[in-house]
Amino acid sequence: MAIVLEDVSKTYEVKGRKVEALKRLSLTVEEGEIFGIIGFSGAGKSTLLRLINLLEQPSSGSVSVNGTELGALSGEKLRTKRKKIGMIFQQFNLIESKTVYQNIEFVLKASKYEKKEVKSRIEELLALVGLSDKADSYPGNLSGGQKQRVGIARALANHPEVLLCDEATSALDPDTTKTILKLLKKINRELGITIVLITHEMEVIKEIADRVGVMTAGEIVEESDVYSIFSHPGHAVTKGFVQDIYDFSIPPHIQLNDNSDVITIKFLNENAEANYVNQLYRHFDCDISILNGRIEYIQDMPLGFLMLHVQGEAQEITRLKAFIDESKGIERAEIYAETI
Ligand SMILES: Nc1ncnc2c1ncn2[C@@H]1O[C@H](COP(=O)(O)OP(=O)(O)O)[C@@H](O)[C@H]1O
Ligand SMILES: [Mg+2]
User: Fold this and answer.
1) Quick check: 298 and 230 in contact, CB under 8 A?
2) Right CATH number for 248-337 from 3.30.450.20, 3.40.50.1460, 3.30.70.260, 3.20.20.70?
3) Cβ atoms of 169 and 181 closer than 8 Å
4) Which of 8, 18, 47 for mutating ligand 1's site (highest number of atoms within 8 Å of CB)?
5) Are 167 and 206 in contact (CB under 8 A)?
6) 14 lines ligand 1 (CB under 6 A)
7) So what's the pLDDT on residue 274?
8) Where is each ABC transporter domain found (predicted)?
9) What is the mean pLDDT of the segment spanning 59-63?
10) From the CA of 43, how far away is ligand 1's center (Å)?
11) Per-residue pLDDT at 340 exceeds 80
12) 2-243 domain in CATH 3.40.50.2300?
């Protein structure tokens, strides 16, 4: 049971010109996971979500959700399945003339929810998203974070199997983004709802995703668990996204030659030993100065970076690099050296 896209293409015709938004894309999102899709604007992310939520059909290929192939559905079955797929948006898409309560009621009525259960369901949803005291407020009087909470409550109204999030935090400030991501994670873990979340921000992926797909020009070019994406990005686009987060660049006054090198060390998992640089000092006849350092937490797992300026005999520098390469759980971060 999962979301499975097989060899999916989607082509739009714009003024006689063909735009290939998705190119023979295959992807499996496992049931119960949070799958993040990151890509620049125009990569095809929203198109991908619209195929999963049944707003559009692929030009070729198939999409199935929890064993049901969506292309085969029509009429009542299509409407029923659509209810099982919730969606939240960057701009919240609330009805401004209705209260918070009425915004959720609207969805429940449209899906012919048992009348006598509507009120208790809305109360339950508002409690879940922490807005019990805002039932009678209008969207215009809510903060961005509160609006998105209403969006989430509304998306969950029909007990969906899947929640799709299209840039759901892109209109929010960083602190509010964190609280909304926490809420989404709680919903995923406590209610077991599979989440597919698209974003152009690596910070969002870092906070919440179990696995991630990197998308560019209608294709998923790399797919992996989140820690691996941050520690060992493979594709150039992924490296670009990861680099944005670390932002390590070599200070302009540093000369690079046979006797002067910049080495960025990467500490994986629990290996960020404080005495590692001490070992380098002790074992090698080099001058070592620290240019930059940082520990990122990918959810709870540390990933450390240390940028060193090493000066000495060429041979000694080579030996030092070999020592690093042989150290367990420690690597040289080649990609950061490429930013010179
Ligand atoms: N309804 C549409 N009609 C024509 N072209 C579209 C339509 N939707 C998306 N596109 C085109 O498909 C490509 C992917 O768009 P989109 O899925 O919105 O990317 P993203 O969400 O990653 O920014 C873009 O080139 C976009 O212009
Ligand atoms: Mg989009």
Assistant:
1) yes
2) 3.30.70.260
3) yes
4) 47
5) no
6) yes
7) 64
8) 3-242
9) 95
10) 8
11) no
12) no
